[in-house]
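Example 3.2
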Amino acid sequence: MMLLRLLYIFTASLLIPAGLLAQAEARQARPEDSGGEILQEIPDPMLLEVSLGAKGESGKPLSDPGVKGRTYYDTKGFVCDKARVPKILVMKRPNKKGGIDLEITPTLATGWPRQDIDLTVALVRGDQTIQKKVWDDLTIGADDSTANKLTALSPIAGFAGSSTKRPAAVFSFGPGEFEKLFDDGEAPKLRLIVDIQ
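Structure, written as tokens:
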């Protein structure tokens, strides 16, 4: 009786179409499958430019006296050896000369536990560099960071996460100098150069 039952189950399984049994499929995952960002790989050194002439959520450009600052996310889709600039915060503040201090704070991120870069932040108009700040040997992450400690405990698992750094460049302008950069309908640009070390 037991043998007859096993024979019945075996015969019935042969009659079920193979498509009804297949519930799984396999292929290489794409970034959009996991809802992740699609990043464009840029060779080292990576140059990023953002126009300050674009109107923000207020509908006004950064040159408008009522606009105190803006956050730019235009750079978030680019990566160079796991180094990225997800956003740039630009703030305008009055200075002692009666002009404006422009504070530019890029958020630097890396997929490595620690990464050394050189960073240039410049304000340019056409082919002319108005002002710039250069950091040599800037480190994103740290040797004693939680990410490095976790990687040291389990090197097989590797690093999953991101380390960030937010250096700030301050460019000072006398009365009317910043607004003059927007004359003739041509707006200045922020230029960032990320050079992997």
